[in-house]
Specification:
The protein is an alpha/beta fold. Helix 2 packs antiparallel against helix 10, helix 3 packs parallel to helix 10 and helix 11 packs parallel to helix 13. The strands form four sheets. It has a seven-stranded mixed β-sheet with strand order 4-12-11-10-7-5-6, with helices on both faces. The protein contains 13 helices and 18 strands. A hairpin with a 4-residue loop joins strand 2 and strand 3. About 35% of the residues lie in helices and about 15% in strands.
Amino acid sequence: MNQATNVSSDPSALSPVWTHLTHMRPVRGEGAWLVDEAGQRWLDFGSGIGVASTGHAHPRVVEAVRAQAERLFFGQINNVITPQAEALARALDEITPPGLDRFFLSNSGAEAIEGAVKLARHATGRTNLIVFQGGFHGRTAQTMAMTTGKTVYRHKYQPLPGGISVAPFPYPLQLGMSEADAVSFCLERLELLLQTQTAPDETAAMVIEPVLGEGGYVPAPPRFLQGVRELCDRHGILLVLDEIQTGFGRTGRMFAFEHSGVVPDVLVMAKGMGSGFPISAIGASASLMERWEPGTHGGTYGGGNAVVLAAAEATLRTLREEALPANAEVRGREISAALHDMRGRHDAVAEVRGPGLMIGVEFRVDGRPAPEAAKAVQRACLEEHLLLLTCGSHGHVVRWIPPLVIGDAEVARALEVFERALARI
């Protein structure tokens, strides 16, 4: 660019559309820690929004990447089928229920949701979708239309694809109800929606996160997911579970649906699947996948980058062999217990919730969302080099989403810093 026309004051040449939690520049990662240019260590309890499941630079993943990079970078899957793609599909088959045994590979969560929607429409011959209030499914046009967590994700991008209806999610604190009443209310409204907005015979799928991610780290109660499953079965509607953020051990099980006993027709996976490498997948039964017309979906890179595929296969092997979902369950209980104890001493903490290492701390003042309190706590933690993220419709929930490899020292450090931060609001 001609220097005379370059009016940006940002020397990095990066687009300003990204928001930034910090301007720290990491040069190295070690487990749950990031190290910046000055050699300072930062405790990363954001995990790149849940991506660094095995921590930063896990030796097993590093070795898999190094070994694969010496042999083959890329084999476009429409032209060739790399052994790495087949190996990853087999690895996914080993950790998913018997009814989910065919896998389509792509690069990102949004791509995987797009694929799941296209599969559902082909397989059912129907067009419409039902999503749930507070859900986040991506930033492409189709997935923005399905996202209702915050207006910022779709601000000034209308019109978006149609055929989407929004059902209430059982968020007891937001609805001002007990969990049992919230579940009953939301199931009744879901049945009403099928009578008033989208008829069953034109509804291809219901798409839901087992735990709302950007919407506030709110778990769907098992009875609700079971009720949604029953409604889908009754009407021939496919159940698509978006486990982009909840999957791969995050909630203390390999997948969050295991807590409820509900098995989806289509499982959407990404984030923690590749330890930081861009990879996603959808899983479905062979009979369902066979109803997807060959050639009507694809992409240049999905399933073709052998280095990424090797990293993902190594990640899944590490999760299993090092029992990281079990570690998430144990560490999650420790953190939740400590946070519940803090809640008793700090009035602004309205609720602590979530399974495993997917914990939300909701801030409210006089019964209303308090984003200022959440941001103040987040800033105070940053001053002590603890990275924590916020979420929720108002940005009023601080989320705990550390790498699944955390141990006693990291847990103790994070809790000490957080309590000091609470004392400052």
